[in-house]
Each structure stands twice: as structure tokens, then as C-alpha cells.
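Protein entry
_____________
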Amino acid sequence: MYKKICSRCSNISYSSTNIGKWICSSCLNDLTSIKALTVDHTINLAQIKRKLELMKGSQVFGRG
């Protein structure tokens, strides 16, 4: 999967291919000439667990 960030409105657009015409779905800016970035879909379970542990209790004390 690929993504491009619109230079006009900063919206992130996603696509399964990086070829062909690419238009921003938010402001209709032509993104075709902008370099597509590869989206990383890996899941780091250890990192997610650490973040959840840090958030634990934050709702009770109004920090979240």
C-alpha cells in the first residue's frame, strides 16, 4: 500500500498502487508528481503493550 501527503491541504491519501493519476480526495489537488511512500503495516505488539501500560489509569485521573 502507498500513501501521499497533499502539499496543499496536508491530507494523507492511500492507494494500493503508485502508478497512474492520483488526486487528493480532500481538496482535489493533483498528487501524481509527488513521490509515493510505502505504508508499513507491521504490528509491534511489545510497543502497543507498553503504550497501553502507560495509559492504564489515565482515565481515572483525567489525563487521557
In short: The mean pLDDT is 88. The chain has one domain: 2-55. The two ends are 32 Å apart (CA to CA). The beta strands are 2-5, 12-15, 37-38.
